[in-house]
Amino acid sequence: MATVIVLTNQKGGVGKTTTSSALAAGLALHNNRVLAVDMDPQGNLGFSLGLDIENSSNIYDVLTGKLPIQSTIQSTRYCDVITSNIMLSSAEMGFTGSGRESLLYTALKPIQDCYDYIVIDTPPALNILTVNAYTAASHLIIPMVPEILSLLGVSQLKETIASVKSAFNPNLNILGILLTRYNGRTLLAQEVKEMAEIIAGQISSIVFDTQIRTSVSVAEAPAQGESIFDYAPRCKPAEDYSCFVKEVIARIKRQEVS
């Protein structure tokens, strides 16, 4: 049975897709069977992993019942991927009726035993796509940048997470908050980290020990369809994401034991 990890933050520009890509590729480098699923209509996760997102079957075809999930899985040099595109943006109006919050959970069932991890990227919004991802999730990871507005975004997630836990997924766990674009030499970054730790405590979680430093390589890698580990293996974010992946694996194993 796959462990389903969802990357989420209703604020854009926090490194959510970059982290999804790095986590999926990093888990695969640890000899895990990994599927990456893009639930963001922008389709950036599939693009970042080198796929043509406009001319292929995608998660929208699965959620609308047009195709079985197995037929939408594409293989890359890193992991398997189910892409998305702008068609998914119609989900809020198109997904109606009872069970609309569990469409992704139901869709993933037939392939749960085929993977060790399923990594899901979500849109920067609290909508039906996000709720579907939360309903399917084992764990949430919340990337955020060390800025005050990013902190507000994390605070606003609490209500949605609580609602999903109450109604659809009582076992939903917040694995941790990940600080991205981090510069520990600035006073603001240090202050935001302290406030993030307070918020993490309020949602029964932690701030990851690893912070992701900034580099132009993070922005360049997706254009080449490569993970940060291949594009710039010696850059600071590649080192940080490598540590982050190890921390994720260790934290999940500790929680499974306890």
Write structural notes for this entry.
This protein has helices at 16-29, 44-48, 59-63, 91-94, 103-108, 128-136, 148-167, 187-202, 216-220, 228-231, 236-257, and strands at residues 3-7, 34-38, 74-75, 80-82, 117-121, 139-144, 173-182, 207-213. By secondary structure, the chain is α/β, with parallel strands linked by helices. It has one domain: P-loop containing nucleotide triphosphate hydrolases (Rossmann fold), CATH 3.40.50.300. It has an 8-stranded mixed β-sheet, sandwiched between helices. Strand 6 (139-144), helix 7 (148-167) and strand 7 (173-182) form a beta-alpha-beta unit. The model has no long low-confidence stretch (mean pLDDT 92). It catalyses: ATP + H2O = ADP + phosphate + H(+). It comes from Parasporobacterium paucivorans DSM 15970.
Task: Tell me the Rg in angstroms.
Answer: 17 Å
Derived from helix and strand composition plus strand pairing, the structural class reads alpha/beta
Average pLDDT level: 92
- Count of helix runs: 11
Order of helices and strands: EHEHHEEHHEHEHEHEHHH
**What overall geometry do the principal axes of the alpha carbons give?**
globular
The CATH architecture comes to 3-Layer(aba) Sandwich
Indicate how many domains the architecture comprises: 1
Question: CATH superfamily membership, which one?
Answer: P-loop containing nucleotide triphosphate hydrolases
Strand order of the largest sheet: 3-4-2-5-1-6-7-8
Task: Count every beta strand, where a strand is a DSSP E run of 2 or more residues.
Answer: 8
Percent helix among the residues? Answer: 40-55%
Distance between the termini: 18 Å
